[in-house]
Amino acid sequence: MPQTIEKLKTKPVPKKRGGFRLGSGRKKGKRDAKQLEKMRTLEEYKARVQRSVDVLFNAQMQLVRGCSYLYRIDKDEKGRKQKASLVTNADEIADYLEGKFEDDGDSYYLITTDKPNTVTISDMLDRAFGKAAQPLRGENEGDAIKVRVITVDTAIAQKYDLDTSTKDNSGGSP
User: Mapping DSSP to helix (H, G, I), strand (E, B) and coil, where does residue 136 land?
Assistant: First the structure.
């Protein structure tokens, strides 16, 4: 018996690890370096977008209207058609639209268009007027929506530790 008491006395007492320590941890409402960097980046991004809002809006409106492309098709010295090249020079485009281009027979122009982008149209309308209401419907037009209500006895709910709140927590379809 004295031997076990001696062993208990010499055993080191384990230090307390973890748990609540008064005054430790980040102070309430204070942000760490990662959060502050993320916030600064977001503010810079917003400022950059705001500086370019006219350009961005015009680009989006162009997608809504549909895009037109002007191509010039040149002929080589033997009169064969070359590959069409996209005209990007604003002055050349303006001259073509105003009919000021010279028809020398060595080249001709072709205009193509893309359809308007319906996703962009929807996005712009949603931003301007708010998202349209999405009505809920039953299986057939005009049918009521079917709702399944399951009632569980309180004793059974407590026995199996079931959530008896009124929110839908089934995770599946009804």
Answer: coil
**For residue 152, which of 171, 140, 170 has the smallest C-alpha distance?**
170
**Cα–Cα–Cα angle for 80, 82, 85, nearest 5°?**
155
Q: Tens digits of per-residue pLDDT, 7-19?
A: 555 556 566 677 7
Buried b (16+ CB within 10 A) or exposed e, 127-149: eeeeeeeeeeeeeeeeeeeeeee
Using left for φ > 0, alpha for ψ between -120 and 50, and beta otherwise, residue 171 falls in left
Rounded Cα–Cα distance for residues 172 and 147 (Å): 13
> Could you identify the residue written with the tokens 């430790």?
24
Residue 82 has pLDDT above 60, yes or no: yes
CA 135 to chain centre: 24
Report which residue type is found at 123: D
